[in-house]
Amino acid sequence: MEYTKYEKARIIGARALQISMGAPILIKLKEEDLEKMKYNPIKIATKEFEGDILPITIKRPMPGN
Questions:
Q1: Which partner from 12, 40, 44, 60 sits 20 to 30 angstroms from 23, CA to CA?
Q2: What angle do CA 60, 51, 20 make, to 5 degrees?
Q3: Distance (Å, whole) CA 26 – CA 48
Q4: Is 38 exposed, middle or buried (0-12, 13-18, 19+ CB in 10 A)?
């Protein structure tokens, strides 16, 4: 599914908030990679988004419904 830039920002922002509140990271990252990202929740969430493993869905209103 292709997301708009607004949907992508919303998904990554919501997931970054979850990570910053202590949610487990869903993608396997080495300690070196986390240090390189400086444990930034937004970068981690972006990596998860790019890996297409986030359990977040988007519901779009369809015309006529």
A1: 60
A2: 85
A3: 7
A4: exposed
Domains annotated for the chain, with CATH where assigned, are 5-50 (3.90.940)
* HSE value, Cβ hemisphere, 13 Å, CA-based, for 34: 9
Q: CB 16: neighbour CB atoms within 10 A? A: 20
Question: pTM for this structure?
Answer: 0.87
Q: Cα 25 to chain center, whole Å?
A: 10
Tokens of 7: 């949907």
Give pLDDT tens digits along the chain (65 positions). Answer: 799 999 999 999 999 999 999 999 999 999 999 999 999 999 999 999 999 999 888 898 889 86
